[in-house]
Structure formats: C-alpha cells, structure tokens
Model the fold of this input.
Amino acid sequence: MNFREATRRDLPAVLALLADEDEVVDPGSVVVDEASERAFASIAADARNEVLVLTDGDAPDGVVIGCLQLTYIPGLGQGGRERALVEAVRVRADRRGEGLGAELMRLAVARAGERGCGLVQLTSNKRRTAAHRFYEQLGFARSHEGFKLSLTD
Amino acid sequence: MNFREATRRDLPAVLALLADEDEVVDPGSVVVDEASERAFASIAADARNEVLVLTDGDAPDGVVIGCLQLTYIPGLGQGGRERALVEAVRVRADRRGEGLGAELMRLAVARAGERGCGLVQLTSNKRRTAAHRFYEQLGFARSHEGFKLSLTD
Done:
C-alpha cells in the first residue's frame, strides 16, 4: 500500500471514488470536466490543501483504492499551530471491510502530526452512524455539532 | 458598523476577543506573543484565509467588537466551488444580546457568497446549545456530527 499526494494522472480515479456510493465506478468511464480540472489544479497549487490517495500494492503507481483531502488551517489559537481538516474520505466500494479506511485515516492523522498540526477535525453526516463509530474507534471525540448552509439552492 | 479584514493593528483586539469568555479583556493589556504574530502573518499572506473584524461606528478604524475567521476550501465536489469554513466567532462580552453575532454571521455568509462559495460550514461544541439555536435561526442545518482529535495531548 502507498499513501501519497494525488497527481493529475490520478484525477479520473479520484473522481470515480467520489462518485462511487455503493458500486465501483470505472475510472476509464470518467469524463474530467473543466470545473474538476480547475479545482484539482487549485488544490495542487495550494500549499495548505492536498488530495491524498491510497494505492494498492508496493509500487507507487498502483491502483487507487482510497482517497481523502486534507486542508491545513492556520489560526490564532493553539500556540499558532495549524489544524487539519479532513474531507472527502472514500474507499472503493469493493474494498470496504478490509480496514483500509482506518489505515487511510491513520496515515492522514500521522501526516498532520508530522506537519505540526495541533488538531485533526472532520464532520460526518448524522445519518452515517457506522462512520461515527469508526471515527470514535480511531480516537476522535464526537464533541461538536456540524452546521452547513448551502449557498447554491 | 464596519466589517473588514483585520490588519496587524487589530491583532491585540482580536486576541482580546479570543481570550474573552465572559468578561471583556482590554486589548491594551494583551501581549502579542511570537506564535500569534507568526500565525497572523500566515493568515494575512494566505489568499484562502482571513480574519474579519466587526467595528463599532461609521469609521473603519472603530473599536473592534466582533471577529471571525474564514477559510475558503477548494474541492472537487460542488462543481469546483469553494466551501467557506467559519472558525473563532466572537462578540465582545459587554456587547452580546444586541444581535451583533447574527450581523457578523450574515456579513460572513454574504462575503462567502460574493466569492462564489457553494457552502458555508462550521462546528459548535455540543455543550453550547444556545449557539446551536442561533445558527439554526440563521438558516444553517445541523446535519453533521463534528469530530476532533487533539494531537497535542
């Protein structure tokens, strides 16, 4: 298994994971639209944002089976340490139940720690109760309510 | 009232607000430590982060009575739109109950909308039930659980 920053070559596989709810989406079938292209370039150019992929096998160019995004947020609290925000955590539908999600999260937390972050935070939809147990087992405290306001309705 | 990006001159007043739980902290008594100095410079230099202040009166250099931080997060979802994360919302202890918090949040949401964000999100500690009603009244959906993992314990 490898855990590394996604490159432009990984974008179809990452978009396939984001589109994958319960069935595997073939990266070969993904059309990379201009908005995704631009968003990926923005993330890649930003030193405080990264899309990370978990790949199968020992070679770094193995098949992408998981992904997440980390955002490092500077702030005035916590002695000036950044906090890491985790978004868009995905494991490929046919590879769930093998502990890959936990591995992905552990690698992300370790990465944030190596960078010097004081905190890792994320939100999970209230309906996803299995995910809540998963994050608690990883040591996260379910201490906050998560609020969202859509601006596109 | 003015709503604008904080400058280095506002830093003591912002740190006073962050230290203010139930009693006003005099900005004149705040010693700006090196970590805060560095963190503020990082935020000011980052096009996706800003500390915003609400000031009293018509002049833009009025007394700081509220603040918050906005982080604009690029992502592959939502047609490539950024989402805005709100952190560190504060209103000065002796000015609460006047609707300034709602005004501050409305201005922040409007700012995120003008920038083209698709979503505004925040988390609030589960103990702060009055804050939860406040965010719901502003139109936020309490749809998520917020998880935190401290890396400094």
About this structure: The CA atoms of residues 86 and 122 of chain B lie 5 Å apart.
